Design the sequence.
């Protein structure tokens, strides 16, 4: 009988040891799994190959979770940051989309990559200016102007001169160099004009006496006034 009691004690002790060992193994496995859990971060990647000088569209991009240590510091985390911009370099399928490989319209206009800031269906056109036609040097990059001109209508025998609105709400992409005179005004302004207005602008700037008219920053309304003939 004594031997039977001792056997039961040994079984109980063995069960207790097994439970403790099992808990220790579970704890060790849990900590090990936690230590080896890979931390990830969502980044924007290219669905397919994106050629250089392509405009980025939503279907070209997707969000993918990548290990934090694999994420480039210039990677985008939102597709909205890329859509509408231009790829300045080829982006391979599955590659992270980097800020450095996309156009920046303001930096492009300020540097030597003006074409990257020209929107589809628009053209960049440089206009020669002086203190009068250039509004005394007060135009700045990003301003919007109207372009007016005095034109000759040869069909009218009397009062052939008339004043016309050539283009409205035209964006200024870049302001040219300063003149060497005392006034120090710029000598040219590069504007972003719609392709449909280019021929009309070219004619007015070549044949007429033109001026730039500065608009309010909050006024984008086009009034399309009729030509004025005094």
Sequence:
């Amino acid at each position: 009988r004594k031997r039977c009691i001792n056997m039961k004690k040994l079984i109980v002790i063995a069960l207790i040891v097994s439970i403790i060992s099992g808990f220790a193994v579970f704890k060790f496995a849990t900590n090990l799994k936690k230590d080896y859990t890979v931390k990830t971060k969502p980044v924007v990647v290219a669905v397919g190959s994106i050629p250089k000088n392509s405009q980025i569209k939503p279907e070209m991009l997707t969000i993918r979770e990548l290990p934090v240590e694999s994420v480039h510091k210039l990677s985008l985390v939102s597709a909205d940051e890329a859509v509408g911009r231009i790829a300045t370099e080829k982006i391979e399928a599955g590659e992270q989309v980097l800020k450095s490989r996309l156009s920046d319209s303001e930096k492009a206009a300020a540097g030597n990559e003006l074409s990257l800031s020209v929107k589809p269906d628009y053209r960049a056109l440089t206009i020669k200016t002086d203190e009068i036609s250039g509004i005394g040097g007060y135009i700045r990059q990003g301003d919007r102007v109207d372009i007016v001109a005095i034109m000759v209508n040869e069909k009218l025998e009397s009062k052939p001169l008339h004043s016309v609105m050539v283009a409205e709400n035209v964006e200024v992409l870049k302001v040219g160099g300063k003149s060497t005179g005392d006034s120090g005004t710029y000598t040219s302004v590069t504007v972003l004009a719609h392709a449909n207005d280019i021929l009309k602008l070219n004619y007015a700037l070549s044949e007429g006496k033109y001026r730039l008219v500065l608009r309010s920053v909050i006024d984008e309304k086009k009034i399309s006034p009729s030509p004025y003939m005094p």
Notes: The mean pLDDT is 81. DSSP finds three helices and seven strands in the chain.
